[in-house]
Amino acid sequence: MNIIEYLDSKNIEYKIQGQEILIFCPQCGKQKLSINSNSELFQCFVCAAEQPNSKYAKGHLSTLQKDFGDIIEISKIQLPKRNPNKEDRNFSNLVTLYHNNLLESKEGLKYLYKRGFNNDDIEYFRFGYVEMQDEKWIAIPSFYKKIPKLIKYRKITNNVDIDKYIREFGSNSVLFNQTALDEFDEVFVLEGEIDAATLIKHGYVNAVGLTGGAGTLLTEHYDELILKKKIYLVLDPDKAGQEAAKNVFAKRLGINKCWNILLPEDEDVNSFFLKYTKEDFDKLISRAFQFKVEGITSLEDVLYGMINRESYQAYSLPWEFLNRFVNRGGLCKSHLTVIGARAGVGKTSMAVQIAYHFAKVHKVPSFIFCMEMKEIDLAIKIVQVGMDLSYDEIDYNQGPTYAMELGDLPIYFGYSGKITPEIYYNTAKEVRNRYGCELFIFDNLQLLVVSDSEADFSAATKMFKRVAMDLDVMMLLVSQPTKIGNERELTFNDLKGSSALGQDPDEIILLNRQRIKGNDGFEALESKTKVLVDKTRFSLGGGCLLEFLGSKSKFIQWENK
User: Fold this and answer.
1) Per residue in 50-79, is it b (16+ CB within 10 Å) or e — as a string?
2) CATH topology of domain 173-308
3) Percent of the chain scoring above 90 in pLDDT
4) Does residue 444 have a cis peptide bond before it, meaning omega lies within 30 degrees of 0?
5) How is 321-354 classified by DSSP, letter by letter?
6) Under a CB-based contact definition with an 8 Å cutoff, are residues 37 and 19 in contact?
């Protein structure tokens, strides 16, 4: 949905002036809020002049969508900081010490001279030198508001048993030359500090360097970069760099504002300028390109792209036996997967366990939208799975202990009683872009669609398929059946809205647990769970047995007893 379609759907009055779309500002009430259809950035000319600190002075379209109620608030459980003083870290003394060390180190200076830096550069960037771990290192500080908040160390000796880069303990993840984001609407994003320093040295002072690797786009950096009008991506020409350029930065920040500068093979920016000139780099800028709009491609491009395309990767589930029956041995991007079961069988527990597994094992950020549980209840399930605790063993006073163990897991939560398919789609797009989530869980379909209309179910499932396809993520949808007796096992046709569910999902996983009578005469569900992959586009399907440990909210492999 483009901006004009979105405004039409909201019955918002607008005027079109070239690429600019003018609407009435929610704050000043004048039709002076201009949205750029290319960058999706807005600016209210009145508020910018009279109230420059107003959120309507300038920003991104997503800010307006939140105010209009079309993107819900996302939360990550607030946990105590591991280092309460981290935000106040100031490495000025260390930077001065290491810088003075460098001025006395022939080996350190020689290394930087060979990389193309002179004495003025060394002074400007406050490069340093230190010996530790029986190795020799160049110290590279990154500043925020003129205060060094991060120090990266680049090893200049050849011991392959020690990482080439390490960082000072307690450093903040600021960008190299981050202040450029406050000063320029167009910026260059480079893969590291040395590359960024090289570009700055040659006059491109609007360059920033990633300090966490090619594929690292942290939320706080996203919030600043999304406000830029134009972003030049200057990442390494290897597979990792180009995958990051396309599938992290351009995908999340927008292909319309990201331009990819492709360096010669086996070159980074630093090595490029050791061989070529600024004029040569300007030629690369002139040849910068935008990535193709998804959805239009040739057969040849698809076939050649298979060798490098990360989207074809299957992310395994926590259970080896079950992985044998799902597509390519796990969940795949652009796929919609349904988990169906009767109430109380463990649908939500399975979904949360998958989210934990993806965050812990695959390092894949996940977003859980649950209409039946609060965020704290979902977090408790994650603690149970992650620390192998029964519910009775959970001690709320041990929150900081749980945080030390699980606080870094990239799992986010959302809830709104006013959720609609379109609001969820807009929210999912924002979550993918801002937090980098690639696994989405919605629990459950029947609480979203409260009618019995097959058309309503069809519209909802098609929306979830759009989330998977448009955003190139894994979409996991929890579903429950119509009211049926307990005397038989659940089948796909028993799911409410099954005619709609039969078309859009790529796989459907059904859970069945028998109801048995105990010695006390009361009935309960047995722990043995029959798991059936009832539909799959690219495999034969099949089933296996898992055991549900109800007290610990998780499934394990079934062992014959």
Assistant:
1) eeeebebbbbbbbbbbbeeebbbebebbee
2) Dna Topoisomerase Vi A Subunit; Chain: A, domain 2 (3.40.1360)
3) 73
4) yes
5) HHHTTSGGGSEETT-EEEEE--TTSSHHHHHHHH
6) yes
* Sign, CA torsion 12/14/16/22: negative
Residue 145, token pair as written in the block: 């508001």
Give mean pLDDT in consecutive 10-residue pieces for the chain, a chain of 561 residues. 90 94 95 93 95 92 92 70 57 97 96 97 97 94 94 91 90 94 96 96 97 89 95 95 94 94 95 97 96 64 57 86 90 95 93 97 95 90 94 91 88 90 95 96 93 90 95 95 77 84 89 82 85 86 93 91 55
Tokens at residue 10, please?
């909201």
User: What is the number of other CB atoms lying within 10 angstroms of the CB of residue 324?
Assistant: 13
SS3 of 523-547: EEECCEEEEEEEEECCCCCEEEEEE
Q: What is the C-alpha to C-alpha distance for residues 467 and 401, in angstroms, rounded to an integer?
A: 36
- Please state, in angstroms and rounded to a whole number, the distance separating the CA atoms of residues 325 and 337: 13
Answer for the pair 465, 504: CB distance below 8 angstroms, yes or no: yes
Domain assignments of the chain as residue spans, ordered by start: 3-68, 90-172, 173-308, 312-557
CB atoms within 10 A of CB 545: 15
> How many CB atoms lie under 10 A from the CB of residue 380?
20
- What is the C-alpha to C-alpha distance for residues 227 and 222, in angstroms, rounded to an integer? 9
**Residue 433 phi, psi dihedral angles, 5° rounding:** -70, -45
Place of tokens 């995958």: 243
CB 475 within 8 A of CB 467: yes
3-68 fold: DNA Primase; Chain A (3.90.580)
DSSP assigned state of 248:
I
Region 312-557: CATH code? 3.40.50.300
Question: In terms of residues, how long is the chain?
Answer: 561
CA–CA dist 490, 347 (Å, integer): 13
User: What is residue 400's DSSP assignment?
Assistant: H
| Structure-block tokens of residue 429 | 């797009």
Q: How many whole angstroms separate alpha carbon 370 and alpha carbon 415?
A: 6
Count other Cβ atoms within 10 Å, centred on residue 311.
14
Angle between helices 454-471 and 421-435 (to 10 degrees): 20
In the DSSP assignment, the letter for residue 263 is P
